[in-house]
Amino acid sequence: MDIFEASIQAGLVETQLPGRSHFLTEEEASVLGLAVASTILVDGAHTETSAKALSDVIDCQTRRAFSSCYRNG
Predict the structure, then answer these.
(1) Helices (H) and strands (E) in the chain, counts
(2) What phi and psi values does residue 63 have, to the nearest 5 degrees?
(3) What is the pLDDT of residue 73?
(4) What's the pLDDT at 69?
(5) Based on the number of CB atoms within 10 Å of its own CB, is 10 exposed (0-12), middle (13-18) or buried (19 or more)?
(6) How far is CA 15 from the centre of its chain?
(7) 33: Cβ–Cβ under 8 A, 6 or more apart, which residues?
(8) Which of 8, 16, 24, 66 could be stapled to 28 by a disulfide with Cβ–Cβ 3.0 to 4.6 Å?
(9) How confident is the model over 1-14, as a mean pLDDT?
(10) With the CA atoms of 51, 56, 61 and 62 taken in that order, what torsion angle do they form, in degrees rounded to the nearest 10?
(11) CB of 7 within 8 A of CB of 32?
(12) 2 vs 6: CA distance, rounded Å
């Protein structure tokens, strides 16, 4: 697949990442040509604190225990 720089720039201009962490929907994954059965997390972590928060999200997803992970805030 050829990806042109202009396409990358246009995609970055249009990109929205509400709430910093975002699990792609099946439709979003499909549009990107990704396997729909996959769980895809997009995150903008760029500091030590946000990287820790990302680690916590991944840990919770791996254990599939969101309710216990986020119960206390």
Answers:
(1) 4, 2
(2) -85, -5
(3) 47
(4) 61
(5) exposed
(6) 12
(7) 1
(8) 24
(9) 85
(10) 100
(11) no
(12) 12
Tokens of 3: 């990806």
Residue type present at position 44: G
pLDDT in tens, 18-50: 667 788 888 888 888 887 777 788 887 888 988
Distance (Å, whole) CA 22 – CA 25? 9
Q: Can you tell me the distance from the alpha carbon of 43 to that of 18, in angstroms, rounded to the nearest whole number?
A: 10
Residue 21, Cβ neighbours under 10 Å: how many?
17
Chain centroid, CA 36 distance in Å: 14
Q: Which residues of 22-59 are buried (b: 16+ CB within 10 A; e: fewer)?
A: eebeeeebeeeeeeeeeeeeebeeeeeeeeeebeebee
